[in-house]
Amino acid sequence: SYSDLLKSTDGFAAENLVGSGSFGSVYKGALSDERTTVAVKVLNLQQQGASKSFLDECNALKNVRHRNLVKIMNVCSTVDRRGNEFKAIVFEFMPNGSLEDWLHHQDRARRLSLAQRLNIAIDVAAALEYLHHHCETPIAHCDLKPSNILLDQDLTARVGDFGLASFLFDGNQPLLSVSLKGSIGYIPPEYGQRGRVTVMGDVYSFGILILEMFTGKRPTDEMFKDDLSIHQFVAVALARGHVIDVVDASMLVDEEMINGGGDDDDDGCGREEEKG
Ligand code: ADP
User: Fold this and answer.
1) Would you call 163 helix, strand, or coil by DSSP?
2) What's the pLDDT score for residue 70?
3) Fewer Cβ close by (within 10 Å): the C or N end of the chain?
4) Which regions of the chain does DSSP assign to beta strands (E)?
């Protein structure tokens, strides 16, 4: 039950805080069976009037399941010891944290190999393909970025927070200033023109993700798009046909670069992948 959940997370004690982001703070907790570890995201939306429809939508998202999506276990609206109401979403816990940590935090002793990066890219592509093409109603993620990509025990990537960001666009809040913390560089240009993000916007964000994953540079960095090896890498991934369904190559590289990259195919990524 959720009162058990609250007890086991000690009223959301600071030592259980695993991170915070666009929607609120995330705590590590356990269900009352004491075997299931969960991540509890306490929404900071109550001041912004998180509506019943938001919770209904989160509940509906429980049925959206795929091996590359973080499982939503439940959604609750409850009251803490001080009588404050809060809303929380309970996710399965991802023991290896987010891709953001793996890409950028120096203290992360382990480093991802090229083969592991490619596998993560393929996992994310599979998650997007499922959301866009295999759900009853297509779901646009709208906030794809490394901190929303979580890694499970064996480093399989699972996309989190799917279908939630679109709620924040529906209100009157300006997306750029309020809702999507840390998303600069991932927001598709059409948002500036039309004020909305669609499934095609996810494709753009996926392209940026690929570049960030393989250059190690953030989209806000100066040299982000000037790295030739990444263009070759993307060409290899595309050529394998794994990613072609969801990525529009023209957004990432021009035709000439893909064709021109053919001779130089032997850049190490192919061999790495075969070994893996
Ligand atoms: P953002 O809005 O920046 O994507 P989130 O609020 O989704 O951030 O999550 C903040 C941090 O909490 C993540 O970067 C990750 O480290 C951690 N986190 C989120 N969900 C989970 C989960 N299911 N399991 C483990 N850690 C998680």
Assistant:
1) coil
2) 97
3) N
4) 17-20, 24-30, 37-43, 72-79, 85-92, 149-151, 157-159
Axis crossing angle, helix 228-239 with helix 114-129, rounded to the nearest 10: 60
Quick one: which atom of ligand 1 is closest to the CA of 145? 4
Active-site residue identified among 101, 107, 143, 265: 143
10 labelled catalytic: no
Annotated binding residue at 41?
Answer: yes
* End-to-end Cα distance, the chain: 42
Q: Provide DSSP, 12-72.
A: T-GGGEEEE-SSEEEEEEE-TTSS-EEEEEEES-GGGT--HHHHHHHHHHTT---TTBPPE
Reported pTM = 0.75
Are 143 and 165 in contact, with CB atoms under 8 Å apart? yes
Which residue ranges in the chain fall short of pLDDT 50? 1, 8-9, 46-48, 109, 169-179, 181-182, 228, 232, 235-276
Residue with tokens 């940026």: 208
